[in-house]
Amino acid sequence: MYLVQDRQLKTRRLHSIFYHLPPLTDLFDAITRLLWWGLGLYTLGLVSGFFVGQPLPWAQVLCAFAVWLLYAAILQGRHLRRLAPKRVAALCIVAFGAALTLLWGITFSAQMHSPP
Fold first, then answer.
1. Where are the domains of the chain?
2. Which of 43, 78, 83, 115 is packed most tightly, with the most Cβ within 10 A?
3. For 5-40, how does the pLDDT look when each residue is reduced to its tens digit (9 = 90+)?
């Protein structure tokens, strides 16, 4: 929503969806809050994976930790005001895509290595 509204403001072509979206400041505050909540929940998920009692595939753990580092870097850039709000929104999309790709990869590899 942030990127759509920002693009419409930059091009000065306001479509009907523009009038139904919240202000950019509210959207950016929501992105920041969701990043904090998401990083916290992702951290809990990573930590809880170590208490499963089964051996962990280290390649998957390293990839999951890389996605965690990406989210942490986005939040750090936001906190230090080194990343513009538009860049934060775009990086959130990239990080979410990486997390979904990782989830698909873990599911796929688990199905390939499961006994018949």
1. 23-113
2. 78
3. 777 777 777 767 666 677 877 888 888 899 999 999
